[in-house]
Structure formats: structure tokens, C-alpha cells
Write a structure and sequence with these properties.
With 168 residues, the chain is an alpha+beta fold. It has a domain at 49-137. Helices cover 32% and strands 10% of the residues. The strands form 2 sheets. It has a 3-stranded antiparallel beta sheet with strand order 3-5-4, with no helix packed on it. Helix 3 (69-80) crosses helix 4.
Length: 168
């Protein structure tokens, strides 16, 4: 058992939020510890396909897909149906592209998922056909070494192809 002075931050859960928080803490020079109740890492994220929605992201821009802050906000307001906290929504709109870049700088590679539109594409102002849904590039279990058997894998979807490949 480690002494409590061995870490600076305690993170509960090893889903995407917990692991992202631990990586961010580590990158800021802190010593995180993750506590997970399950026998394997992954949490509920394992069953979510791992898609991330980020408007105005640099990957879409590099692929030639246009997007504007106004369009992202219009779409978010439509989704919120008048019940959005504007401060939180604009923080998400403005900071999520930064977060995506931060995690890429940490070595997590992402790509735009073609074939996944905004849910209300063609029905909502600001919706887009492509560019806002991204996913992490596949990581070989062999790269995980001893951790390979400590990571949960979904049982109802193939984990050896990307969401884009499943759609195609």
C-alpha cells in the first residue's frame, strides 16, 4: 500500500474522464493515482464506441471541412432546447478543440470519423454532415505489454476496427 503522500490527486474511475484527468494531471507535473472498482480498466467508456464530438476541431479543418463557432453554438442551442447554461456551453465550444490538441500533444492520436453526421443534420441550424465526430486511432494490444489483459474490451462490438470502418 502506498502512503498518501505518494500522490497529489486521487481519481475515481478509469473511464475516459478518469484516464484523461490522470494524463492531464501527470502532464502538469502532478502524481495521480486512479482507483477503479472493477477488475479491469475502461469503465463505462468501453461500451460507448469512444466517439468524441468537437466542433471547430483542427482535424476537420486540416481535412478541408469548414466549421464556425456560430454554427457550433447554433447547433448546441438547438440540442439544448432552451435549457442550456450559456457559460458552460460556450466553455465547451471554446475549450474542447484545445483539449483535443492537448491530448494529441500527449501522444493520443485521433482522426475524423467519416460517415457519422451530427444527429440532427439537415434538420437543425448549424448541423454538419462530417467533421465533428472524432475517435482515437486504434492501439494494438501488443503495444500495451503487461497492461493488455488489464483493459476491458467491448463484447458486443469489434474492438479491432474503427467506428468509421464499422460504418463503411
Amino acid at each position: 500500500m502506498m502512503s498518501s503522500d505518494a500522490w497529489d490527486i486521487v481519481i475515481l474511475g478509469s473511464g475516459i474522464a478518469g484516464l484523461a484527468g490522470a494524463l492531464a494531471a501527470h502532464e502538469m507535473g502532478l502524481r495521480p493515482v486512479i482507483l477503479e472498482k472493477a477488475s479491469k480498466l475502461g469503465g463505462g467508456t468501453v461500451n460507448s464506441y469512444g466517439l468524441i464530438w468537437v466542433g471547430q476541431n483542427h482535424l476537420a479543418q486540416a481535412a478541408g471541412y469548414g466549421d464556425t463557432r456560430g454554427e457550433v453554438i447554433s447547433y448546441m442551442r438547438f440540442l439544448g432546447g432552451g435549457s442550456l447554461d450559456d457559460e458552460r456551453m460556450t466553455a465547451f465550444v471554446d475549450r474542447s478543440p484545445e483539449a483535443l490538441k492537448f491530448f494529441e500533444e500527449c501522444g493520443v492520436c485521433f482522426h475524423v470519423v467519416r460517415g457519422v453526421t451530427d444527429h440532427y443534420y439537415g434538420k437543425s441550424p448549424g448541423s454538419h454532415a462530417v467533421g465533428r465526430s472524432v475517435e482515437v486511432d486504434l492501439i494494438s494490444g501488443f503495444e500495451l505489454g503487461d497492461w493488455r489483459d488489464r483493459v476491458s474490451v467491448p463484447e458486443d462490438v469489434p474492438c479491432f476496427v474503427t467506428a468509421e470502418e464499422q460504418i463503411a
